[in-house]
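Re: the request from the purification team.
They wanted to know what the chain is likely to look like in 3D before they choose a buffer screen. I agreed to run a prediction and write the result into the notebook, where they can find it.
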Amino acid sequence: TLAARPAGLPNAALVKSCVLDRYGLWRRHHVLELATALMTSKVLTALNSWKFSPVMRVNEPIEVNAILGFNIDTNDQY
């Protein structure tokens, strides 16, 4: 469950569920909470170039389900 925002504040977070594979790449991602269209687009564009450190279990990389949350500075005007 996501925490409620105080009334009157703009939506300023992007939350995605995904699978982080054994190579540190994100797969099968779904938006759980949207920011504005422009903010969402910018974050998703950046995420496509990111590589995560794989989760290790007994010195072997494994695939895991993850939820990624991004707070976005709403002081910028879009």
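For the purification team: The chain has a mean pLDDT of 77.
Please add any questions underneath this entry.
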